[in-house]
Amino acid sequence: MRLVIKVGTSTLTHSSGRLNIRRVEQLCKVISDLKNADNEVVLVSSGAIGMGVSKLNLGARPSDMPTKQAAAAVGQCELMYTYDKLFSVYNHTVAQVLVTGDDIENNDRRNHFKNTVFRLLELGAIPVINENDTVSTAEIAVGDNDTLAAIVAVNVKADLLILLSDIDGLYTADPKKDSGAKLIPFVENLDDKIYSIAGGAGSALGTGGMSTKIKAAQICTDGGIDMIIANGANPEKLYEAVAGESIGTFFKGKK
Predict the structure, then answer these.
(1) Alpha-carbon gap, residue 73 to 6, rounded angstroms
(2) Which of 170, 147, 160 has the alpha carbon at shortest distance from 241?
(3) CA-to-CA distance for 113 and 152, rounded, in angstroms?
(4) Angle in degrees, 0-180, between the axes of helices 65-88 and 48-55, rounded to the nearest 10
(5) What's the CA dihedral at 2, 8, 9, 15 to 10 degrees?
(6) What count of other Cβ atoms lies within 10 Å of the Cβ of residue 105?
(7) pLDDT at 137
(8) What is the pLDDT of residues 85-135, one digit of tens each?
(9) Residues with Cβ < 8 Å from 60, sequence gap 6 or more?
(10) pLDDT tens, residue by residue, 207-240
(11) Is 5 in contact with 41 (CB distance < 8 Å)?
(12) Is residue 164 a contact partner of residue 232, using CB atoms and an 8 Å limit?
């Protein structure tokens, strides 16, 4: 399979903003094992700003653009250093790919991006994709790597997109506020009801939320690609997702 796996800031870090070492080590181990089983993996990774906040001892996610971009510049180095170190243990090579909206919207630049990713996969590398938060302003304000992951999945013709977050999937209501909320295991059609139950932003260090994940699901399913929202707390769940077992919320691509 060709997989696109997106990990959010909440999956990579503790609430303090510091790296969740045990979880990231487990994530890299599982992805390496999936690669060893002849799957191709593209990793879309958030976390640059969050890790930069910690590295610079800022205490909280900044609100002004220059400090956000400074944090991203510092944090992206830390993020890639971490991935390079952990994946190299299992003899896998990572490649940093930073993109902006223009790289996707401009036909020539999008084709260059696709050709680069395809070649990296042919060479056996793991492309690690993030928004170019240090120079971009529109994307960094949105902070929407869920949508980026969906766009990447469509462009690289993935078989499956897996969004790892701090929630088990799509619920009938916000499970953090409503104890009666029930997990929705399967979504075939993204109707108004599905959109109405999608909430706002998630963690304090990240800026995504269920609404961006539903938007990603729309892009994916319209492109004929299946998508899963799952909890990133246990990266070994990726094995179940690849095996076709039911985890989180599965969105059926339109074939």
Answers:
(1) 20
(2) 160
(3) 10
(4) 100
(5) -130
(6) 10
(7) 55
(8) 999 999 999 999 999 878 888 899 999 999 999 999 999 999 999 988 666
(9) 53, 204
(10) 347 888 999 999 999 999 999 999 999 999 999 9
(11) yes
(12) yes
Q: What tokens appear for 234 in the block? A: 């246990």
Contact 61, 95 (CB under 8 A): no
Which three-class secondary structure string do you get for the chain? CEEEEEECHHHHECCCCCECHHHHHHHHHHHHHHHHCCCEEEEEECCHHHHHHHHCCCCCCCCCHHHHHHHHHHHHHHHHHHHHHHHHCCCCCEEEEEECHHHHHCHHHHHHHHHHHHHHHHCCCEEEEEECCCCCCHHHHHCCHHHHHHHHHHHCCCCEEEEEECCCCCECCCCCCCCCCCECCEECCCCHHHHHCCCCECCCCCCCEHHHHHHHHHHHHHCCCEEEEEECCCCCHHHHHHCCCCCCEEECCCC
Q: How many residues does the chain have?
A: 255
Cβ neighbors of 153 (< 8 A, separation 6 or more) are 4, 42, 161, 219, 220, 223, 225, 227
Residues 241 and 162: beta-carbon distance below 8 Å: yes
Instruction: Give the separation between CA 196 and CA 191, rounded to whole angstroms.
Output: 9
Listing from the earlier edge strand, what are the strands of the sheet with 2-7?
94-99, 126-131, 40-45, 2-7, 160-165, 226-231, 249-251, 186-187
Q: Is-contact 130 142, C-beta < 8 A?
A: no
**Could you tell me whether strands 2-7 and 160-165 are parallel, antiparallel, or unpaired per DSSP bridges?**
parallel
Both tokens assigned to 84 = 């390079």
Rounded to whole angstroms, how far apart are CA atoms 123 and 93?
A: 9
